[in-house]
């Protein structure tokens, strides 16, 4: 057995408690910074190991770490996993009865906890703040971790007004380090998080947004239900997945239809009774191969690592939303897929929802721009991953693993159209949005065109050969490829960028995706299952280990991945360790799990030929 040092280092805690031999990316720098008492704002993709960035410092610092978490289900899973690893962790939320809650409070007051998970509403109550004051005064308040920090952003669909109150923490507890973490935040949202949480002076850690294990696939709608069914049956016939729909009605109809096709699917949306939602979420977390059909009400904080696919039957609202939702696939690092079916009607519907909302004009302008950027992604003819990462300010080579890289689409030469569009932007003074520019190009004598005298400029009517839909595609891609920029301060006016010069001078071309003829081609070969073991080793041992894990999880009333992730079982199946010492070298097996499960795992291995 490995022995934990009385004064452990960060690496020692990582190995002996969590079972990993090395940190990934920025993890070690974040851990050491926070453990030393520094504040941090952390952006790290889903599945990148954000939790370790505050869990390890919590075990290195004296006292109890307070983790602010927005969802009960997430708290339960995080605490279950920590307890399995031998950490003294608990949660305080509305799922506890009065006596259980008092027991947790006594443990907190007595300094018996390493980590305590609470909702922001609970943390800000006078009773709880008094308890925190006691911990501070006795030197037993280790740190504050604010998970899902994007909930503080009033621009996001996950906005939680209670998060705004967390700004008082540095005023009341100035000596206690704080770490705010999120998986999704563009530059504007990062600044908003820092400002609203008083973290302007915190050190920022921005990991790569790339999720190389996720394959991005986007198809044009052509009987989308059948397309979805074909995708699931061909790629992931018995794996867990999430299907997102825009409306509650569509969620229920899609879930019922998938059930009729013999798939294990459940609906989830905010209109369902709370006990039904809770029951469906619990089943999804604890059962293998279940498909959740949901609105965006489902997903934030879902910790299930073996979701093999996330599908969208409707266009999401923004790149941030798309990235966050697709990021729930493949948290274990094994191959997964983000699949979407979209159509022009999706864009029309989204625009109508924005226009008819009661939001401010500023919010509507930002929402329209974010939708346009997302449409630019789905219409792209080049690498999807490059487009996605570029939005977050990250450059990357073509991934070779998205649909556009694997099956380059047919394109049409839009060079002349793009030049006309850029010229029209310039001739109208770079003061107008796409709608007006399209009217000028098509020679439409609207009131606005006549009022500004734009029927007399050289670009009036030079684009009549293209319809409005094709012109909107041209402008969206000019924005997506950063040849024109959107001026939010001037009502989404378009202005030229330096990148437009080569195209205007005739030194560059511009090609756009050609819409495919609707056809029902032959099914493509199903991709290799993530559970396949390389090198010709049979999957029997892996299957036996999963069955053993399922029995253990049922006995302990926790999700199976709390016991071990698939990636750990896969590594065991490949290595076939013959002793406790060899088993200790498997990633994901800390001292507590080695002691609790080591002998049983070796027995399963020995019994499997």
From TrEMBL:
Gene this protein is translated from: recQ
- Zinc as a keyword of this entry, yes or no, is yes
The prosthetic group or cofactor this protein requires is:
Mg(2+); Zn(2+)
The segment(s) forming the Helicase ATP-binding domain are 31-203
- UniProt catalytic activity: Couples ATP hydrolysis with the unwinding of duplex DNA by translocating in the 3'-5' direction
Q: What is its EC number?
A: 5.6.2.4
Which parts of the chain are coiled coil? none
Give all residue intervals belonging to the Helicase C-terminal domain.
224-374
Give the UniProt family note.
Belongs to the helicase family. RecQ subfamily.
What are the UniProt keywords, alphabetically?
Answer: ATP-binding, DNA damage, DNA recombination, DNA repair, DNA-binding, Helicase, Hydrolase, Isomerase, Metal-binding, Nucleotide-binding, Zinc
Instruction: State the name under which the record lists this protein.
Output: DNA helicase RecQ
């Amino acid at each position: 057995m490995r022995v934990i040092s009385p004064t452990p280092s960060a690496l020692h805690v990582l190995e002996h408690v969590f079972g990993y031999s090395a940190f990934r990316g920025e993890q070690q720098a974040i851990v050491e910074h926070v453990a030393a008492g520094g504040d941090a704002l952390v952006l790290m993709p889903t599945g990148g190991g954000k939790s370790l960035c505050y869990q390890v410092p919590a075990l290195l610092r004296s006292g109890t770490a307070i983790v602010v978490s927005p969802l009960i289900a997430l708290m339960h899973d995080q605490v279950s996993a920590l307890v399995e690893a031998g950490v003294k962790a608990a949660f305080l939320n509305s799922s506890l009865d009065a006596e259980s809650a008092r027991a947790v409070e006594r443990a907190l007051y007595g300094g018996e906890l390493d980590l305590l998970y609470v909702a922001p509403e609970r943390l800000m109550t006078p009773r709880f703040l008094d308890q925190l004051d006691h911990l501070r005064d006795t030197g037993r308040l280790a740190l504050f971790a604010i998970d899902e920090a994007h909930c503080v952003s009033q621009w996001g669909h996950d906005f939680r007004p209670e998060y705004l109150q967390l700004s008082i923490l540095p005023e009341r507890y100035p000596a206690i380090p704080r770490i705010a973490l999120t998986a999704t935040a563009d530059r504007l949202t990062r600044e908003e998080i820092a400002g609203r949480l008083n973290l302007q002076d915190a050190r920022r850690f921005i990991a790569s947004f790339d999720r190389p294990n996720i394959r991005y696939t986007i198809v044009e709608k052509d009987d989308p239900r059948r397309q979805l069914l074909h995708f699931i049956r061909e790629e992931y016939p018995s794996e867990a997945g999430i299907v997102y729909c825009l409306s509650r009605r569509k969620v229920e109809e899609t879930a019922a239809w998938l059930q009729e096709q013999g798939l294990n699917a459940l609906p989830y949306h905010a209109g369902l009774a709370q006990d039904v939602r809770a029951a469906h979420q619990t089943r999804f977390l604890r059962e293998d191969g279940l498909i959740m059909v949901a609105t965006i009400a489902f997903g934030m904080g879902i910790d299930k690592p073996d979701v093999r696919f996330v599908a969208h039957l409707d266009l999401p609202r923004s790149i941030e939303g798309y990235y966050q939702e697709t990021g729930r696939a493949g948290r274990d690092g094994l191959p997964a897929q983000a699949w979407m079916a979209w159509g022009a009607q999706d864009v029309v519907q989204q625009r109508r929802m924005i226009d008819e909302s009661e939001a401010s004009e500023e919010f509507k302008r930002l929402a329209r721009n974010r939708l346009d950027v997302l449409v630019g992604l789905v219409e792209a003819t080049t690498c999807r991953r490059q487009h996605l990462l570029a939005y977050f300010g990250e450059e990357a080579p073509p991934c070779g693993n998205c649909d556009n890289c694997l099956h380059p689409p047919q394109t049409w030469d839009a060079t002349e159209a793009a030049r006309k569009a850029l010229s029209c932007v310039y001739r109208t003074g770079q003061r107008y949005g796409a709608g007006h520019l399209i009217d000028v190009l098509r020679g439409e004598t609207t009131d606005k065109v006549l009022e500004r005298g734009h029927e007399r400029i050289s670009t009036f009517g030079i684009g009549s050969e293209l319809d409005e839909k094709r012109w909107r595609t041209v402008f969206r891609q000019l924005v997506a490829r950063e040849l024109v920029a959107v001026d939010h301060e001037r009502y989404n006016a378009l202005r030229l960028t330096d990148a437009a010069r080569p195209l205007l001078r005739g030194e560059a071309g511009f090609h756009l995706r050609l819409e495919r003829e609707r056809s029902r081609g032959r099914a493509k070969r199903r991709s290799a299952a993530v559970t396949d073991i390389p090198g010709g080793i049979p999957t029997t041992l892996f299957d036996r280990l999963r069955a053993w894990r399922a029995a253990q999880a049922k006995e302990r009333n926790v999700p199976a991945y709390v016991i071990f992730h698939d990636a750990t079982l896969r590594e065991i199946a490949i290595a076939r360790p013959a002793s406790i010492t060899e088993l200790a070298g498997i990633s994901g097996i800390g001292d507590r799990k080695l002691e609790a499960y080591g002998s049983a795992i070796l027995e399963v291995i020995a019994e499997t030929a």
